[in-house]
Amino acid sequence: MAKRDPHLVATRIVEDAGGELVGRTRLQKIAYLLQLAGFGDEFQFEYKHYGPFSEDLARGMEIATAFGQVQEDEQQAGWGGWYSIYRLPNARPPSDPSRAEFVRTAKEIGAVELELAATAAFIFAVEGIGRTKEGNPWAETRARKREKARDGRLERAAAQYAQLRQFPTPTQLPVLPTP
Amino acid sequence: MPGLLTGAKLRRIRCPVHNLIDFGSTPDRAGRQLELELWRVIETRPFQRLRRIKQLGFSELVFPGATHTRFAHSIGVFHVARQLVGAIRRSVADTDERQVHVAIAASLLHDVGHGLFSHAFERFGEQFNLNMAQHEHVSSELIRGGEIADVLKEKMGRGFADEVADMVKAKQPANLYASVVSSQFDADRLDYMQRDRLMTGVRSSDVDAMWLISNLEVRSVNTGSEDGQTGSVETLVLGHKARQTAESYIVAVLHLYQNVYGHRATRGAETTFFALMCQLRRLCQEERIGASGLPPNHPLVRFMADSESLENALALDDTVFWGALPFLVAAEDGTLRSLAVRLRDRRLPTYVDIRALVEAAFPPAAREDMSVRKARLARIKLTCGNVLSALDERQASTPMGERAVITDEYERSPYRRFDTGRTPMNQMHIRVGDGVLDMATVSSVVAGAEPFNLCRAYIFRDDTESRTMVMNIIRTEIGRAGHGEA
Prior knowledge:
The complex is a heterodimer of chains A (about 180) and B (about 475).
Chain A: H1 6-16, E1 20-22, H2 24-36, E2 46-48, E3 51-53, H3 55-67, E4 71-76, E5 82-87, H4 97-107, H5 111-125, H6 137-144, H7 146-149, H8 153-165
Antiparallel strand pairs in A: 1-5, 2-3, 4-5
Helix pairs in contact in A: 1-3, 2-4, 2-5, 5-6, 5-8
Chain B: E1 11-15, E2 19-23, H1 29-42, H2 45-48, H3 70-91, H4 97-109, H5 119-128, H6 135-144, H7 147-156, H8 160-169, H9 187-200, H10 209-214, E3 216-225, E4 228-238, H11 243-261, H12 264-285, H13 299-305, H14 310-314, H15 318-328, H16 334-345, E5 350-353, H17 354-361, H18 370-394, E6 405-412, E7 429-432, E8 435-438, H19 439-442, H20 444-448, E9 452-459, H21 464-482
Parallel strand pairs in B: 4-7
Antiparallel strand pairs in B: 1-2, 3-4, 5-9, 6-9, 7-8
Helix pairs in contact in B: 1-7, 3-4, 3-9, 4-8, 5-12, 6-8, 9-11, 12-16, 17-18, 18-21
C-alpha cells in the first residue's frame, strides 16, 4: 500500500542524524533498525542484495531531494564508486531526542558493519533464522556477504549491534545469537 | 556423433527466436553430461507444467500472437546462458566449471516456479504474503526437492540442486556466474526481450543480442562503500564497440514496458484476475466454497485452503483456471460471477489514468531547467502516491474482491545506475581504454532516461459514483500539491 508523504519521513531521518547522513545504504539500514526498534512503521522493507531495503523510503528521499528539503551531494569514493551525502539546508532540532540519539549512534557505525548488522537483524526478525528456523543469523549473513564479513567486520557489526540494543527504545531490538 | 556420451542421444529443439537449440553437443564431456541431465529435467512434471503457463499472462488479450509459454522462454534462457558462459570462458583462464554448470542449470530452471498467468498471480500472492505465489521461492523449493532434485542428484552430485536453487532464489548476483542468471544484462532479459517482441509483433525494442554477446569480456571492478574499498570482483564488461548497441538495449527495455507489459488492457485483465482470486480466497476462508461454483477438491480451492503447500502450487496453471471459468461464471456469489464473466468475454474494467491527469495538472514550462523538472516529476509522483493512499483509505473496510475501484501502480527504471548501494555484477559496464565505466556514466542517453511510471484506477462498477469518487480524490490531491501541502 502506498504511504502518504514518504518524503517527510525520509527527511526526518536526516534531521535526527543531526542534519547530515552519508550514504544510501546507511539511510536504508538506519531506517530499518529504527522501525525494528519501534520508532514508527512507515516503510515496508524487503531483502535486497545489500540487506533490508524499502522502495518507499528510496522514493521518499528522491522526492525530498527534488523538493530541496534535503540536499544531495554526490561524491566519488577513492575506489571509484559513487555515494550520496544528504544534508538539511536548515537544520532543525529533532522532535524526539531519544530517537535522534539512536540515529546519531547508528550513523557512526561503519557503512559495511551497519549493513551487516541490519542484515543479521532482518534475517532473524523477518526470515526467522535463529528464531523460528534453524541456523544463526550472523552465520547466514556471513554466507551471503563473504567478502564484506571478512577482516573482523562481522564481529564488529555484532558488537555494535549489541551496543545499539542498550538504547531505551519503544521496542527493544531483538537479542541475536552470538556469531 | 563424435564425442557424444556412449548411448546418449543428441536432443534438439526448434526455437522461433534462436533457431536450433541442442542438448548434448557441447565439446567438453562434463558439459555434455550436464545438458543431457537437463534434458531429463525438462521431462519432469514441474518443468512440463511450464507448457501450460503463458509467458505474458493476459497479454494475448491485446497481442493475439503472444501465446508463448514459460516453457519456450526457459529453453531460450538456457541457450543464451550458454552463450554468456562462452564469453566468460573466452576471457577467464581458470573458469570455475562447477559454477558454470550451476549457472546454466539455474538459467533453465529460473522460472520453474511461476504460477498461473505468470506475474499476475504474484500480485495476489503479495496481497496475502503467500510464499507459494512468489516464483523465486517456488522455483527454489521445486529444485531442492522432488523430481528435479532427484534427476540433478543422480549424476551431478549431492549439493548441486541446492547450489542451483540458491542461485535462482538470490535476487542479486553473488558472483560472476550468477550474473548470467540475474543482472541487468542476464540471459533471462536477453531472451524475453527478443521473444516478447517477436510474439507480440511490436516493431520497436529490437536488440542486437549477438553483437552484445560477442563483445563481452570479464574484467575486475572495485567494490566498497562510502567509507572505502572492501575488495574487487570479476564481472562481465562490454567492449567499447558495443556501446551504442547497449544503449539501444536499455531503451528497448523501456519501450517494452511502455508498449507491452504496461498496456492498459493487459493490466486491466490482470487486475480483474487479481480481484477474482481475492474474492475466491475470501469465499474459501469463510467456508462458502459452494458459492464459488467450484467443487471442494478443485486445485484452486485446495490452494486457497492451504497456500503453503508446494503440491497445491504445482497443481495450478493457466489451463486449470480457464477450465474453472465455466463454473465461476455460474457462481452463486455475484461478485465472483461478474469478475469471471469479465474475463471470459474480455469485458475489461474501465480505468482512470491517474498519472496522466496529475501530469496534466503540472505541465512543464516551455524551457524547463533540470532541477525544476526534477521537482515537478517528484510532485507528480508524490501526488499519485497520495491519490492511491486516499483511495485505499476510502475503501479500507471493503474486501479487495468487492472493491469498486482497484488501483494499479508500477514503476520501472530502464537502467539503475551504479552506486555504493549496488553490486557491480548487476550493472552493465563498458570498457573505455583500460578502465571500466558504468553505462550511465558512459551514455548520456542512459543517464537521462527517466523511469516508466503507471498509476491507474480500474473501476469495477458500472456506475458513475465510483468514477466520481476517483476524480474527486484526484482533484483534492492535486489541489493539496498545488498549495504546497504535499
